[in-house]
Structure formats: structure tokens, C-alpha cells
Amino acid sequence: MNERVEALRKAGHATILAFESSCDETAVAVVRDGREALANQILSQIDRHAVFGGVVPEIASRMHVEALDPLLDAALSEAGMTLKDIDAVAVTCGPGLVGALLTAVSYAKALAYARGLPLVAVNHIEGHVSANYLAHPDLEPPFACLVASGGHSHIVLVEHYGEYRLLGQTLDDAAGEAFDKVARVLDIPYPGGPLLDKLAEEGDDGRYRFPHTHTPGKYDFSFSGLKTAVINQAHNLRQQGEKIDAADFAASFRRAVVDTLVEKSVAAAVDAGAASLAAAGGVAANRLLRRELARQGEAAGLKVYLPPVALCTDNAAMIGSAAFYRLMRGEAAALDLNALPSLRMFA
Ligand code: KG4
Ligand code: ZN
């Protein structure tokens, strides 16, 4: 093992400079000992992609390249540090868009090589889970975690730092993807999830009826059937000349997704013997999901942990936190690290 990694491991401390560029946010953070974000800089490209109705990979990559330098300067300045204060460099290596991932992977590799610093490769999903360590100083494994984002939806048991057991997952669409696609039929601009959520706050969630999907696995979920049923219902109502009440429609759809996510994650956590349940990923910003997880989780005897909304969506602080625990296990990456667009968290 690299001597520098071994020295950091022995000391049990590390200040990590972390990079994230897997989708449409460029982010650079400085994280101390896995728990404290000293800087958390994010540049969202959403406005640039919104006109196309989704992320355009080529544009995303180009914008990451432009943003990395100034964001690094801003992060160091926010932390009141220079590169001399940094002990290791971390980067998201997957999953995500290959071109987008490659920008920060190349940048982090160059920086680690030039400064002679250890490089730590982080799985984006593990990063989302680790956002909880930044938000909740008392949270320690084991705990269950619902990770729901635009590309992934899993229920995991965090057995130890960096060690996960899959309890359940989506069999098709991710929850965020379903939110974004249903938002589109309601003419809500990309990314639809947050705006659909806001609209749903004003709506009656009992007005429209949508099917509940049954899955063979007790803790698995499926959103593709629901999404198609909801989109078809919108088209049918319009063909019949009926006006759709967007707020009620959004509220009814949100209720169907949230009921499934909450019911399954609370059951999975209780059955796995976990005392706590955390949430992570962009969909964990959803207002109803947060209220229901807290209510139903606590009713089932679980301590519920919700990161602040800013740490639910993509950021680099979560990558710095996950990297700390990888580093403390001696898991540094080699300089031939590549972007891994289909990287999985479970074999
Ligand atoms: O974790 P994230 O920022 O990026 C991925 O790793 O995918 O998640 C983005 C996803 C998008 O699908 C977005 O619509 C969804 O999270 N999202 C929400 C909310 N905020 C973000 N979905 C529902 N309600 C929200 N408030
Ligand atoms: Zn994400």
C-alpha cells in the first residue's frame, strides 16, 4: 500500500478534495474526516439543458471542462485553504454519463499525480448514501437507507462503512425518472421532479386513481407500469376533452410513488433489524416523501435521518465523505482509473 495512504490511515484523519461530474452538475468540495464539508461548490447546468427537455451529454461534458478550474478555486477559497492543505483527491468514477464522468476523472487524476496525493474513486450511489454522514454527526452503521435518484432506486443496508447489502431495488425505472417523465405530460419543464412536487402540495391526492404495481420481491419496486398508466390516463382525458387539474394529477401521482417507496423501505429496514432509516438521492428532496418517511418510520420504531435538500441532489461533499471511509480502508485508486458509466454498487 502507498505510504501516504498508510500514514493517513494511521492518523485517522484526512482532508479530501472531491470532484463530481457524473451528470449535469459540476461540483467540487473539501471534506474533513468524512463528516464536515469545509467547502461545497456546485454549478448546475439545468438551465442550459432545460430547452432540450433533458441532459444533452455532449453539452454536459463541455460545460464540466469549463467549470472545473473556477470551481476548484472557489472551493479552496471557501475552505480557506490551498492545495498544500489537501491530503487526498476523490472523484466519482461512475455510474453516469461517460463523457461527463471523464472530465472530473481526468482532472482529479492529473491533480493527484502532480501533487503526489492519493486518489480515491467513489461510486456515485455510495456518495448519495454518505451525504447522511455530513448531515448527521451521530449516524453510524448499521442503518438502512433508501437511495432514490434520477437514475437509481435502491434500499440498502449499510452494514459497516463502505459495506452494503442490497435489500430491494427498482426493477425498471428509477423514481426520479418517473417523476420527470410524468412532469413532461403536465408540461412541467425539465427536471420535472422538484416542480411537480411543488405543484402537488396544492393538489388533492385522492382525485385521480392510479394502479399499484405488485413486484415479486417484497422490497423491490417498479415504476414503469405506473408511469405508463399515468401518461395514458392524461392522454385519454385530453382526448375526451376533459381538462386535467394539474395540481390534483401531480398530487395523486406523487402519492402513489411515495406510498410505495415509504412502505417498502420501512418494511425492509424493520425486517433487516435496523434501528435507523436514512434517505438519499434527489428524490429524497421530495416533500411528501420526507414527511411520510419521518411519520411512518418513527411509527415503526425507527430513527429517521433525512439530509438537507442541498445534500440530497448531486454534490461533491457526499463524494468526499464516501472517499474518507474508502481511504481509511486503504482503498486508493491507481492512476489508470477510468470512467465506469455502468458501475454497479452490488455484484
Ligand atoms: O440525485 P440526483 O440529483 O441525480 C441523479 O443521481 O440522478 O437526482 C435527480 C433526480 C431527478 O430525477 C429529479 O427530478 C429528482 O431527483 N428530484 C425530485 C425532487 N427533487 C429532485 N423528485 C421528486 N421531488 C423532488 N422534490
Ligand atoms: Zn445523483
Any descriptors?
single chain; alpha/beta; five-stranded mixed sheet; 10 strands; 46% helix; binds 5'-O-[(R)-(carboxyoxy)(hydroxy)phosphoryl]adenosine; binds zinc ion
Q: What's the pLDDT, averaged over the residues?
A: 96
Helicity level, as a percent range? 40-55%
| H and E string | HEEEHHEHEHEEEHHHHEHEHH
Query: What's the number of helices?
Result: 12
Broad structural category? alpha/beta
Radius of gyration: 20 Å
Overall outline: globular
Report the β-strand fraction as a percent range. 15-25%
Structural notes for this entry:
This protein is of the alpha/beta class and 347 residues long. A 5-stranded mixed beta sheet has the order 3-2-1-4-5, sandwiched between helices. A 5-stranded mixed beta sheet has the order 8-7-6-9-10, sandwiched between helices. A hairpin with a 4-residue loop joins β6 and β7. α6 crosses α7 and α7 packs across α9. The mean pLDDT is 96. Bound molecules: 5'-O-[(R)-(carboxyoxy)(hydroxy)phosphoryl]adenosine (KG4) and zinc ion. 5'-O-[(R)-(carboxyoxy)(hydroxy)phosphoryl]adenosine (KG4) binds next to α6 and α7.
Write a brief caption for the model.
With 347 residues, this protein is α/β, with parallel strands linked by helices.
Helix-strand blueprint:
Blueprint (H helix, E strand, L loop, with lengths): L2 H9 L3 E6 L4 E8 L3 E9 L1 H5 L6 H23 L8 E7 L3 H18 L3 E5 H12 L7 E6 L4 E8 L2 E7 L5 H11 L6 H9 L23 H16 L6 H26 L4 E5 L6 H13 L3 E3 L3 H4 L4 H12 L19
Parallel strand pairs: 1-4, 4-5, 6-9, 9-10
Antiparallel strand pairs: 1-2, 2-3, 6-7, 7-8
Bound molecules: 5'-O-[(R)-(carboxyoxy)(hydroxy)phosphoryl]adenosine and zinc ion.
The site of 5'-O-[(R)-(carboxyoxy)(hydroxy)phosphoryl]adenosine has 19 residues, from α6 and α7.
